[in-house]
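thought: fold this chain, then report.
action: predict
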Amino acid sequence: MMYFVSKMLDRFLNPVSMIWLVLLIACARAVMKKEKRQALFTGALALFITLIGSTKFPAYLLATLEKPYAVQDLNSLPECDAVILLGGSHGFSNYGVNSIEFSKATDRIITAAELVRLKKAKALVIGGGKYSSSGETGLHGQLIAEWLESWKPFDSPIHVLDYSSNTKDEADQTKILARKNGWGEIILVTSASHMRRAEALFKKNGLKVVAVGSDFEGLSSLEADFRIYGIVPASHGFEKLHYYLHEQVGWLYYKLRGWI
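observation:
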């Protein structure tokens, strides 16, 4: 009983849960005072938060983007010229190991390194943005390159792309590097939800792409818990909805720009 109470209290420390509770109280108060418009407004907001924060609906949406890029056996993949690891898996930190602040998408790095270790490619290419902190600047990709070189999981060469503000920049730089090295087929590694847009970019640049997804936020959520509904809503559903909407809007934007 105490454990249940403790878990419930912990749930209500989440800002989303707090807003939901306030809306429920406001809705109940409006119903009691027969303020129909106020009751409908607050009730509808509370219902929306419940749908996104308490159910697996956002995970189902995100999983629709991820599922086509799930590879269960890396050994079954063909040998290619290079593994391309897109940025977004980490940031810079003065306090992290090798100045790396890992994020939820860190398994992008593990997946890419494992593919090269399995000799599925002759080289690793790391993309990403740049950092600036305490007067120090550099490339995110270089941080990972130095970390992998110190651990030495493989002997293959590592190439670090210059600063990329988006996936389009990474695709364009990879095209130049591929021409220089005579690469025709690459293994592309990024978050599975982002892969549709990324794969389209690299294919338009004339590269043959083997897409290997990682960072399965949606599929993992569907498999991790048998429940489809939680009593108190939390923020994780809103994060998944954000990822889904980001990719849908990003796809449309890239289409309008003629990039894919």
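thought: worth noting. Residues 65-219 form a domain with the Rossmann fold fold (CATH 3.40.50.620).
final: tokens above.
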